[in-house]
Write a structure and sequence with these properties.
Number of strands of chain B: 0
Shape of chain A: globular
Structural class of chain A: mainly alpha
CATH topology of chain A: MetI-like fold
CATH class of the domain at 62-229 in chain B: Mainly Alpha
Number of strands of chain A: 2
CATH architecture of the domain at 62-229 in chain B: Orthogonal Bundle
Strand content of chain B: under 5%
Oligomer: heterodimer
Radius of gyration of chain A: 24 Å
Order of helices and strands of chain B: HHHHHHHHHHHH
Order of helices and strands of chain A: HHEEHHHHHHHHHHHH
Strand content of chain A: under 5%
Number of helices of chain A: 14
CATH topology of the domain at 62-229 in chain B: MetI-like fold
Structural class of chain B: mainly alpha
Largest interface: A-B, 116 and 103 residues
Number of helices of chain B: 12
CATH superfamily of the domain at 62-229 in chain B: MetI-like
Distance between the termini of chain A: 23 Å
Chain lengths: 316, 276
């Protein structure tokens, strides 16, 4: 079902080329209509992201601590110096990178298996496809509580399997493992659905031909299926990497960042709402923003992601 | 024949594993929500005793009831506005040619990648200055912005599949422009708009970071925050039961919606993300 919908949309060239007639009047009225239609979206985007991020950059260059309001003033890059020379930042950065890399890697493997299962299964396909939407749609805070209670000694069905006295959420490594588990559980289905859409593009004939040429299942997967799915895989990895990098909800619920589990988003939040330091908080916000941009650009240039989104279509 | 049954058997096992994967954590929180205070710490997956008291309790907590009202109201308004604004822009992107289209699409994409924490600091300060902190609009605005990429992508993907020529054909057959739009285009566009609305609603319903940062009182606090701040009926009671019951209340409407419209949602999710 998804397949046909996809290929249809690909072939239907968007807007362009259709009205390149003599009608410059028409082109002009089309432009006016487009400007009118896009204006609300552009206004909201400018007001709620463009202006604030500019303001964040401005704030990050100021000394602005609500505890010392009289010392408000421009201090250049000093906030960045303070953040980048702080052990807290680098610890949070390392934790965030570890959570991101480990969870995206695990997710990819499980999601691929899940996508293959959803694609191939001969019984209960509809049921399986429906049921994987549950982790996707459940509220992250709820999922976090479920996993937290499951691993709480004396309370949880999973903790009951552990030896007496082991409390996973109270030491760094195991707490991060539980955080990763919660992340993976919640977001794998979304990645699986993205991969499933890519999988639907693999021509069945090609697989049959490969099988006839003596390619085993593993070879068919690595030599035929995965290369064809590459664009879908890269988009899925990019989306999930950026998403995992801003991990906040799960950590907030499970540990509040204690036991060395603070992520960069948690750190930014704490600086603002516990430290009341807008200057430092803004510097952290801007740093996270640039890191995310770097990840996105790296994906696009290194892996040659057929830039996700409509840009890919514009080129077609 | 035998081989066929074996294959079916293996797939049945695989399916059961997937079902378990998706359902066990949900059933666990449901189970906790039905455990009475005396056995909430017994570590059993299936409750030994069964009670509704946790549910009765949470609906007596004023802050939870108001949070539920805030969540529903804020998510519905944000979804409505986001879908309307998104529909306008998506129509332009899918149907019209105009300069700056690439830029618009690029900027929307940028926002899809935007780390919300980067906005929380400046937004909090801006909203503090203009008095929007702890109000419905104070949350609705960021929700609209952050759900717009999703709305625009999904909708423009749906809109590209609509055979727009039908509208002209209907007009040639004597329909007024309004009739043509109402009885030809609207039925074709409605499923896409509806699917997008569900996805956007899930997004708003799920948010925690903005809600915990930009709200302070019952006036605008949403359920995700209220749950995280539950401390039980009295100071010394264990909040697990109440939190679980509230979690189930928060989950039921979304899951039933998603299962009801699951096929559409899968299409919406994948078209939106893969092709933009």
């Amino acid at each position: 079902m998804t397949t046909t919908a996809q290929s249809d949309a690909h072939s239907a060239a968007p807007g362009e080329g259709r009205c390149r007639g003599p009608a410059s009047v028409r082109a002009r009225s089309e432009r006016r209509l487009a400007a009118l239609l896009c204006a609300p979206a552009v206004l909201v985007i400018l007001a709620v992201t463009g202006y604030p991020i500019g303001y964040a950059i401005y704030l990050s260059l100021e000394r602005f601590d609500l505890r010392f309001p009289e010392q408000h003033g421009f201090i250049g890059l000093a906030n960045y110096g303070a953040v980048l020379s702080s052990g807290y930042w680098w610890q949070a950065f390392a934790i965030t990178v570890i959570i991101t890399v480990v969870s995206v890697a695990i997710e990819f493997v499980i999601a691929l298996a899940l996508a293959l299962a959803m694609h191939r299964t001969i019984i209960g396909r509809g049921l399986v496809r429906a049921v994987v939407l549950i982790p996707y749609s459940i509220v992250t805070v709820v999922a976090s509580y479920s996993w937290q209670y499951a691993w709480t000694p004396g309370k949880g069905y999973l903790a009951a399997l552990l030896p007496e006295g082991v409390a996973p959420l109270t030491s760094q490594v195991t707490a991060i493992a539980v955080i990763v588990l919660a992340e993976v559980w919640k977001t794998t289905p979304f990645m699986a659905l993205l991969l499933l859409a890519g999988l639907a593009l693999v021509p069945e004939d090609l697989l049959k031909a490969a099988a006839m040429d003596g390619a085993g299942p593993w070879q068919r997967l690595t030599r035929v299926i995965l290369p064809i799915m590459k664009p879908a895989i890269l988009v899925a990895l990019l989306f999930r990497t950026l998403d995992a990098f801003r991990v906040f909800d799960v950590i907030y619920i499970m540990t509040r960042g204690s036991n060395g589990t603070e992520s960069v988003s948690m750190l930014g939040y704490d600086n603002l709402f516990i430290g009341f330091n807008f200057g430092i908080g803004s510097a952290i916000s801007v740093l996270i923003f640039f890191i995310v941009m770097i990840i996105a650009v790296a994906f696009v240039t290194i892996f040659g992601v057929a830039a996700p989104g409509v840009q890919a279509q514009e080129r077609r | 024949m035998g081989a066929g049954w074996a294959r079916k058997g293996w797939w049945a096992i695989a399916d059961i594993v997937i079902l378990g994967y998706a359902l066990v954590p949900v059933l666990w929180i449901v189970s906790l929500s039905f455990k009475p205070l005396s056995s909430v710490n017994d570590g059993r997956f299936i409750p030994a005793e069964f009670t509704w008291s946790n549910y009765r309790q949470i609906f007596q907590i004023a802050s939870f009831v108001s949070a539920l009202r805030n969540s529903i109201g804020i998510a519905l308004i944000a979804t409505g506005l986001s879908v309307v604004i998104g529909t306008l822009a998506a129509y332009a992107i899918a149907r019209l040619s105009f300069p700056g289209k690439k830029l618009l699409v690029g900027v929307t994409l940028l926002i899809a990648m935007f780390p919300p924490i980067s906005l929380v600091t400046p937004l909090f300060d801006i909203e503090r200055t203009i008095g929007l902190v702890d109000t419905w609009p104070g949350l609705i605005l960021p929700y609209i912005t952050f759900s717009l990429p999703l709305a625009i992508y999904t909708l423009s993907a749906f809109f590209r599949e609509i055979p727009w020529e039908l509208e002209k054909a209907a007009q040639m057959d004597g329909a007024t422009p309004f009739q043509a739009f109402h009885s030809v285009i609207l039925p074709l566009a409605a499923p896409g708009v509806f699917t997008t609305a569900i996805l956007v609603f899930i997004f708003c319903w799920n948010d925690f970071l903005f809600a915990v940062s930009l709200t302070t009182t019952d006036a605008s606090q949403t359920t995700t925050v209220a749950i995280a701040q539950f401390s039980g009926a009295s100071e010394f009671t264990e909040p697990t039961g109440s939190i679980s019951a509230a979690a189930v209340v928060l989950t039921i409407p979304i899951i039933s919606f998603v299962l009801l419209f699951q096929r559409r949602i899968v299409t919406g999710l994948t078209t939106g993300a893969i092709k933009g």
